[in-house]
Each structure stands twice: as C-alpha cells, then as structure tokens.
Specification:
Helix content is 6%, strand content 69%. The chain has an eight-stranded antiparallel beta barrel with strand order 1-2-3-4-5-6-7-9.
Length: 197
C-alpha cells in the first residue's frame, strides 16, 4: 500500500504540465463505459486546438424473465458503432487542468436483433449521422499522459431505420423503413485516459 501511495504522489505532484507542452504531438485516448468502449486518435495542432478521430463501440443483451415459466430469456442483442472527427479547443492551455469544448460529426450504425423463436427473429438496423458539442476538463501529467472528465451534452441526430421481421404463426412478415430526427440535451459523463507522443 505504501508503494501505491508513493507512485500516486509521484504521478500527481511535482513538476507541473500543461496542454501547451503537447502541442504538435500525436495522442491516443481510451475509455471504458458500461456496455462498450471508446478509442481516439488525437493530433494536437497547437497549444489551444486538437483534432481527433473517435470510434465508440457498444454491445448489450436485454434479458427478462418469461411471463409464464419465469426462466430468464434474452430478449434482444444490440450492437452500436459511432465514428467520426472531432475538434477540441482548450480554454486555458497554460494550466495543468484545462477546460475544453469540442464539436464533432459522427456516422452511426446500430443493429438490434430480437430472437422470437428458434427459426424466426426480428431485426432493426439504423444508419445516420449525429453532430454535437462536448465539454470536459483534462489534467495533464508531466509524463505526457492525461486523465479527462468528459461529456457530450448537445447533439442533433438523423437516422434511417429499417425493421424486418420473419413471419411466425402469430404475425406476418414485416419489412419497413422509417426516418428519425431528434435534437437532445443529454449528459453522458465518462473518464478518459490520453497519452501523447
């Protein structure tokens, strides 16, 4: 335990660092959240500006007990991929804890599959684009790696949805398209680790 405290003291105290020290460098960012993860390739353009390509992958199973037997059944499998560019602007590049705001455009692919029976299923796919704003604060250590608290908070999304269902004894086959547009103010806070080289 003493060794862990000493390593934390070395990591967070001592010589200060700031966003200006990584100007012109490349970086990698990563984060893990419930049901998925995020990876970013970063290029710091100047002490105030950084460009990034983000990729987020999510997977989840929705399980519920059967109404009659009580046996837990998987109701749906969901996979999502969001990917696209992001530009970040640091408010105080000379500080070791620098707030920032960023704007992004991401392509979206979502797939949802509902198993209905061993020979039949329902599936839904969505394709689209989202644009939005994010904000955060990044703490840069003297070893050119940082920890950031980040949230995307304002976004507008356009989706084209396709739903298909195989026919069963209880329902006919379905093949339908729909268009969805939504704008939302929503917070999704997460911690990210970034390394610059």
């Amino acid at each position: 335990m003493k060794m862990v405290r000493m390593m934390l003291a070395l990591l967070f105290w001592g010589q200060t660092a700031h966003a200006g020290l990584v100007a012109g460098k490349w970086g990698l960012g990563a984060g893990i959240e419930s049901g998925g993860g995020e990876l970013s390739i970063i290029r710091t353009h100047s002490d105030r500006t950084a460009w990034a390509i983000d990729a987020r992958l999510g997977y989840s199973d929705v399980s519920e007990p059967d109404d009659f037997t009580g046996v837990v059944l998987t109701k749906a499998h969901s996979v999502s991929v969001d990917m696209g560019p992001r530009v970040r602007r640091f408010a105080r590049p000379g500080a070791e804890r620098s707030p920032y705001v960023d704007a992004y455009v991401h392509g979206i692919l979502r797939s949802l599959r509902y198993p209905l029976a061993s020979t039949s299923n329902s599936r839904s796919r969505s394709y689209g684009v989202t644009i939005g704003l994010g904000l955060g604060v990044e703490y840069l250590t003297r070893w050119n790696f940082s920890v950031a608290a980040h949230t995307d908070f304002l976004q507008a999304t356009y989706l084209r949805d396709h739903t298909a269902r195989d026919s069963t004894a209880y329902s006919p086959a379905l093949d339908a398209w729909a268009t969805e547009f939504r704008a939302e103010l929503a917070f999704s806070p997460r911690l990210l680790v970034r390394a610059y080289f």
